Amino acid sequence: MSRLRLGMAGGGEGAFIGAVHRMAAALDGDWDLVAGAFSTDGGRNTRTGALLGLDPQRVYPSLDALIAHERTLPLDERIEALAIVTPNHLHAPMAIAALDAGFHVFCEKPMAMSVVEAEAIAAAAKASGRQFALAFTYSGYPMVQEARARVARGDFGAIRLVQVEYLQGWLSQPIDTDGNRQAEWRTDPARAGLGGCLGDIGTHAFQLAEHVSSLSVESVSADLTTHVEGRRLDDDVSALLRFEGGARGVLKASQVAAGEENGLRLRIHGERGGLDWSQLEPNTLTLRWLDRPTEFVRTGGPGMLDATATLVRTPAGHPEGYIEAFANLYRAFASAIRGDGRGDGGRWFPGVTDGLRTMRFIEAVIANAASDQKWTSVNPGENE
């Protein structure tokens, strides 16, 4: 089985997430990175291509140049998919250009700068017939998929409570004004969009809650705060959630929780029991019951469902983490492009639906926090 050919936009020298994408794509042998437009800085772009061992003729000064030249190559040489690992303001124009050119797209989250842009991407994906994936990495963890499967088969009865939090502390000081490139663009409305912490990690928490519970949030009551003086976007988010079917939830996301690392945690409770999963201990899923002792399901250990087990690469006790979860998404993306359907556990990946939902969540939270309205609908056209 031949490897798929990947191009990359962004992710040049000094960038964090581009390297993560490259490691994840390479892990299972499904992808070869063959081209890229890594930076608008010519020197950085050239150095990145050289460090990655790429043909200099396929290290392009811009995405437009990449698309134009790649389309002149024979079908068995040109890229088949583009990974977009840029700041948010470039997601929509780049994704639409790549889809219109006939390339599949794997894009960083959030999907776009607005619902309107997200809908334009969705339309382009549909018209092109190409695959569109989003980097909601945490949904690739085996224990997250185990949790989703157990909720779906009714282990806990009707779901009543969903609590999700994502706490970071790295923006507790104004490092975005001190030359930190990762912080600078994330707090710039022109590049990050309407939400700061909300768009960066609040979307991860929201997507995880909906994905595992298999329930859609209908409305939100929210508070957005900017704690660091002079910062232009929020750095702290709190939201009450009303789910379809009557479940209630709480979402907390903060990037000024001093001392926290990447404290993503999800708890879901139904009539008969509940689950607890933490990204800081990702290989353990805790199951709590009303009428029997607490259970612990471990990655690679006994008790995992067959479909979820296909996401595991190592024997129990050999920790799998962030890169492996990311790689599960790239593996599923490759499977969808090939149409080979390798196992139920390997086919799903976050895409257009997740992207649209998270963009609508962002806009609903911002609208609610700015108004005196108690609840705001996440679904357009509906009134609370």
Please write the string of helix (H) and strand (E) elements.
EHEHHEHEHEHEHHHEEEEEEEHHHE
Low-confidence stretches: none
Strand order of the largest sheet: 13-12-11-10-6-9-8-7-14
Number of helices: 12
Radius of gyration: 21 Å
The dominant shape is: globular
Report the mean per-residue pLDDT as an integer: 95
- Overall structural class, as computed from helix and strand content, comes to alpha/beta
Q: Specify the helix fraction band.
A: 25-40%
Annotation, overall tally of beta strands:
14
Major sheet: 9 strands, mixed
Strand content: 15-25%
Give the termini separation.
Answer: 52 Å
Give an overview in words.
The chain is of the alpha/beta class and 384 residues long. Helix content is 34%, strand content 23%. It contains twelve helices and 14 strands. The strands form two sheets. Strands 13-12-11-10-6-9-8-7-14 form a nine-stranded mixed sheet. A five-stranded parallel sheet has the order 2-1-3-4-5, with helices on both faces. Strand 1, helix 1 (17-27) and strand 2 form a beta-alpha-beta unit. It starts with a strand and ends in a 7-residue tail after the last strand. The mean pLDDT is 95.
